[in-house]
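Lecture notes, structural biology module. Today: joint structure prediction for complexes of two components.
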Amino acid sequence: MSDAIVVDGLVKRYGSVEAVAGISFSVPRGTVFGLLGRNGAGKTTTLECCIGIGRPTAGSVRVLGLDPTRPQGLARLRPRIGVQLQATSLPEKANVGEVLELYAAYYGIAPRAAEMAARVGLDGKLTRQVAQMSGGEQQRLALALALQHDPEVLFLDEPTAGMDAFGRRILWGEVERLRDGGKTIVLTTHYIEEAERLSDRICIMQRGKIVAEDAPAELVARYGGDATVCIEAEGFVPDEALQSLGTWTKTGAEWTLATRTEPGLALAAVVTRANALNAKIASLDLHRPTLEDAFIAITGETIGETE
Amino acid sequence: MNLLRMFFVQTKMHFVWYFRRDGEMIFWTLVMPVFFLVLFSYAFSDGTTSRSSAFLVPGIIGAQVLSSGFWGVGVMLATFREKHLLRRVYITPMPAWVFFASLVVYRMTLLAAQAVLLIAAGALLFHVRLLGNPLEILAILLLGTATFVSLGTIIGAVTRTTESANNIASILTVPLAFLSDAYVPIDRFPHAVSSALRLLPSTEFIDTFRDVSIYGAPLGHYGAWIAALFVWMIGGTVISARTFRWV
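The predicted structure, tokenised, for the full assembly:
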């Protein structure tokens, strides 16, 4: 069995609202799967159905071959998964060391409070109370709780929301390290950069549906559109060789090449041609398609911060 | 072994958090009850404070048992759910019964401490003497606590927010404390009323607790009321188990 997670025809309705409208995907073991989408796209609901918090209205979910919607399946699954929830859900009056000790007891493992605190950048803060910690610090403690028992599958729900750059670096480092160690990770995010950097495969969700799913580079190649090279140079005209690279348009004094070839090489060719023509370059620009371009092309909207 | 450690660490945390709540918990569970004892012992005295105090010591302990179940457990569970603490615990391997057993033991220990404090205050300030068998006193106290924790859990199960749990707990706790022989003897009401009030689990518990602790009545004489408390406890547990939601 090579898939850690298999979701098939998952539907989740809250009253008349369809939060997840029939989605299917599978996550191979040892890979990072990113659920990318706006707030309210159904990412969290999907994740909740994988960990037994949400009961699917229809469809099936298997994690490590177990059914989280059945009590026996969930009981066997719990020790093998680690979860970082979106809403910080830690006891306010507890301190860092106590929370880690408590969760070590929940999982029946030896406490590793000092080690785990250091791992998430909370070293020396074992006696700091949750209520006195910043949102980012609480998120990092929540990450430590998800990791402490060394789970096979990790679910991270908007793990870096509210985190500063320091926290984000720690989390990204952990995800990369865990993936290299063969763990399977599902993360939801509305940060395109995060999804692109961490995910082996990205699943873009919109209004409860999956609208695209592929490796980040493939999504960009397929939906990101052309790369462009822009040049403004007195007397510059593309020759036949340059014309074969793509489509040239002229706006004012600026020539723009839209191309599917490697834009760096196209740029080099453009500069060579300009030099050959003795055309003095006033401006030169290159734009590679990004995952954001692909996201906009796929969903017809920017990811934004809107609800 | 793992379950035992889980239970032990969780229970320990309840106490750590209890003492860390800026003294607020200590005030409500230890200072206020003694203050009520002193105040009401004089207010309700018919010349000798020792008689009113002898009535009040078990009555206030009983009222504390009620609020421990309704506030301490019921409202706390609603708060835990609202703050997403329950769902975080739910996805760990800790079995539900360990979570609840820890809560019950924490509350029982706290109530035993409250009882000792109130009994000591009654003895020192008003010469209240306990004639009952300590083991029987403890037994009925623990049965009452278990009963009201199980009934309080229903509040935590059926309410969505801390606010609504708070409202239900107040609506139940305050009138019940006055209608269940805790602060004022219900004998002063018309016979029909006081008979009806004796059907309440709170009255049955407080009266049994008072008779056994202060007057030294043998617990065995209260078989019917003990059976009734067991029925309330089991009923409360069944309803809680069926309605409780972690998310």
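Point to remember: The two ends of chain B are 28 Å apart (CA to CA).
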